[in-house]
Amino acid sequence: MEAVLYVSHGSRIAAARHEAARFVEQCRRVIDIPIQELCFVELAEPDIVTGVDRCVAQGATRVIVVPLLLLSAGHAKHDIPAALDIARRRHPSVDILCGAPFGVHEAMIDIVIDRISEQSAPLDGESMILLVGRGSSDPDTKRDMSAIAALLKEKTNVPHVDVCFLAAIRPTLDEGLQRAHASAYRRVFVVPYLLFTGVLMKTIERKLQGFSVSDKEWHLCSYLGDHPRLVLLIQQQVLSLSSVKKGA
To answer: CDD domains annotated for this entry (predicted)?
Structure first.
């Protein structure tokens, strides 16, 4: 019997954990697999190994692990595989397959555009976009965010898309906001490239308040959230992994 184990980042903020649970509920409705559980990398329970335990306790002989992560960084490359190694030793007869984060995908660009379009202001030649990423010491994070920014610029024809980060790498959020403030663009669309709400979203809101008295129009867009395109990407990944033969 198959199971799907969704792995969210985790947060101390209850609203973020509830958003992850609501998103998984949307996925459950379109994925025809009897066992579906949610777990977290950190800061919340259950953890990944416990998530696998719960699937197996319900009769799962194959667990399809789906990282609810935007980019491939430390959690996807190290933390999740390390936890799954423990789970495999605990359940040697269970086939455990792991998918990939959303990554640089056209659907992600479309979601960002949708979030910008929710604002009342036009995205035109007097506008720029500031993408705010979580940040990681993994060099792939900066590379992937730059690739997303380039695709976003190409698809929207906006004159300028800049990137900054909330942790670990530069430019920092403060630097990104200062650069946008010093630019010639009249409107700045600040897009939190985050999956769910949490401490980092609150940080962006607080920092942006300091620029609200400037002569620019600042538009804080929603984080990506439980967008239908994300549900479709998850559905496609689960179907692909479900078709993999055991031992392949």
So the answer is: CbiX_SirB_C, CbiX_SirB_N
Residue 247 is assigned to a structural domain of this protein:
no
Same domain? For 93 and 6 the reply is: yes
Q: What is the pLDDT of residues 19-48, one digit of tens each?
A: 999 999 999 999 999 999 999 998 889 999
Q: Which one, of 54, 78, 56, lies nearest residue 67 by Cα?
A: 78
Give the pLDDT of residue 138. 84
- As a residue count, the chain comes to 248
Rounded Cα gap, residues 28 and 46, in angstroms: 18
- Where residue 132 sits, what CATH number does that domain have? 3.40.50.1400
What is residue 224's predicted lDDT score, i.e. its pLDDT? 93
Specify the pLDDT at position 248: 55
Q: Residues of 145-165 as b/e, b for ≥16 C-beta within 10 angstroms?
A: beebbebbbeebebebbbbbb
Q: Which domain holds residue 34?
A: 2-102+227-242
Residues 129 and 160 both lie in one domain: yes
Residues 111, 73 share a domain: no
User: Which tokens hold the place of 233?
Assistant: 């990407």
Full-model pTM: 0.90
| pLDDT, mean of residues 104-108 | 94
